[in-house]
Write a sequence for this structure.
């Protein structure tokens, strides 16, 4: 019983969290019919996890003075919940001229089921002993109560069949909305497990009307396990669009943060030598990224375009907080400022230094893009050293800048990570600096 209580508590927390998340949207747009149905469905889906907990179940029966009446409340809540889910999916996946008729048929059938359930529950004898776990098994053959149970199981089965069909249909429509699509497919699988609960129950009950059913064990053991899997998958599937986007967002920003950290050493050297290219105040290396701002990553629905933010933010903008909320902006400024520095230093990029770096890279077994990254890093290191020494390196007027990104920010960041890694860790850079200094000492005084 303790394990059951813990399981219901976990599912309840997940479901009520989803309700709170969507209730916020309903408060903003309380006339929205779809949000009303959605919140009602989530609430009536979450409620049974609280009510079915043995301690709560028995407490309800004591307060109302009717043995096992909590079962009636739980089953009615499930009926309302499944009706709401099916109604929503009908709205989303059906032609608008057919939605109203289908809604009326669905609601009419569900209301009739609820009435039958209430009438036959009170006509029957639910005993005087509480049965929070084995009510179905204990009362499936009791007159009137059996009709109550059969009505509930039929409605449950019809709803699960409709959910399978509608989820499959709508998932095709929203194939481009990854988390909604995954959620629908998870719900579809959960509905199949739901059928694994209700169908054996119905077959067992009908079989007992004409003889002794051989499915008692399946009905009492396998079916409840299938229902638990169904509930877990529903909790995950129906809430997936809410938390899935947040997970994707956190993963995305984690990736951006790692890029920012790897480019930082190169960017810091560049901006220290060329402070005029800085778009807004430099981020201190000792900045502590605030975990208190992580909640903003999940709730943020609109991602501002980095280049647009850079364009509209003036230099010295005090709104930059240097938290994970601004990490995309900070990475964008790194890319922009490094490229600006390369443009200003382009006259210091010589074919001689490039050739030295290329030869040294070849000696270390590096070719292709790794060698290109080392060449670019070496050119920058040599140009920055010359600038720090106050020396003008005689470069070529048309010295080319390597641009593999062609305007793609992600490709640009990936390339600069390679350049920054080479700048920070490659032994070739120090060797290229030493060889260039030796070659230019007499004529330029770089090594002075």
């Amino acid at each position: 019983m303790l394990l059951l209580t813990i399981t219901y508590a976990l599912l309840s927390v997940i479901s009520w969290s989803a309700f709170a998340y969507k209730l916020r949207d309903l408060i903003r747009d309380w006339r929205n019919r779809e949000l009303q149905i959605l919140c009602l469905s989530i609430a009536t889906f979450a409620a049974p996890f609280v009510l079915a907990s043995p301690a709560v179940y028995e407490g309800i029966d004591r307060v109302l003075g009717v043995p096992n009446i909590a079962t009636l409340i739980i089953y009615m809540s499930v009926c309302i919940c499944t009706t709401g889910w099916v109604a929503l999916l009908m709205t989303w996946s059906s032609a608008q001229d057919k939605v109203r008729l289908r809604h009326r048929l669905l609601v009419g059938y569900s209301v009739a089921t609820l009435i039958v359930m209430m009438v036959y529950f009170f006509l029957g004898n639910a005993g005087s002993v509480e049965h929070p776990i084995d009510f179905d098994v204990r009362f499936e053959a009791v007159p009137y109560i059996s009709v109550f149970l059969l009505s509930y199981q039929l409605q449950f089965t019809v709803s699960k069949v409709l959910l399978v069909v509608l989820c499959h249909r709508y998932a095709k429509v929203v194939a481009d909305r990854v988390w909604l699509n995954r959620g629908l497919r998870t719900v579809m699988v959960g509905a199949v497990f739901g059928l694994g609960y209700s169908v054996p129950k119905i077959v067992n009950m009908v079989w007992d009307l004409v003889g002794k059913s051989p499915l008692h064990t399946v009905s009492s053991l396998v079916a409840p396990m299938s229902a638990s899997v169904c509930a877990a998958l529903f909790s995950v599937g129906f809430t997936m669009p809410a938390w899935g986007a947040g997970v994707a967002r956190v993963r995305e920003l984690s990736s951006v943060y790692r890029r920012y950290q790897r480019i930082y050493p190169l960017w810091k050297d560049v901006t220290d030598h060329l402070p005029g290219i800085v778009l807004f105040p430099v981020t201190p290396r000792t900045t502590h990224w605030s975990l208190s701002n992580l909640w903003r990553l999940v709730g943020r629905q609109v991602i501002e375009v980095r280049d647009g933010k850079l364009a509209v933010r003036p230099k010295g903008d005090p709104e930059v907080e240097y938290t994970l909320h601004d990490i995309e902006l900070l990475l964008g400024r790194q890319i922009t400022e490094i490229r600006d520095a390369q443009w200003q230093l382009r006259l210091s990029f010589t074919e001689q230094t490039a050739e030295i770096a290329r030869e040294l890279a070849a000696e270390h077994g590096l070719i292709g893009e790794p060698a290109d990254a080392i060449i670019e890093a070496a050119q920058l290191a040599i140009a920055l050293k010359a600038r720090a020494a106050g020396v003008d390196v005689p470069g070529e007027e048309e010295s080319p800048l390597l641009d593999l990104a062609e305007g793609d920010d992600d490709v640009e960041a990936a390339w600069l990570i390679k350049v920054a890694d080479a700048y920070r860790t490659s032994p070739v850079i120090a060797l290229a600096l030493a060889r260039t200094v030796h070659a230019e000492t007499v004529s330029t005084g770089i090594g002075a």
Notes: Residues 216-273 form the longest helix (58 residues). Residues 45 and 81 are 5 Å apart (CA to CA). The radius of gyration is 33 Å. Confidence is low (pLDDT under 50) at residues 285-289, 291-320, 441-448.
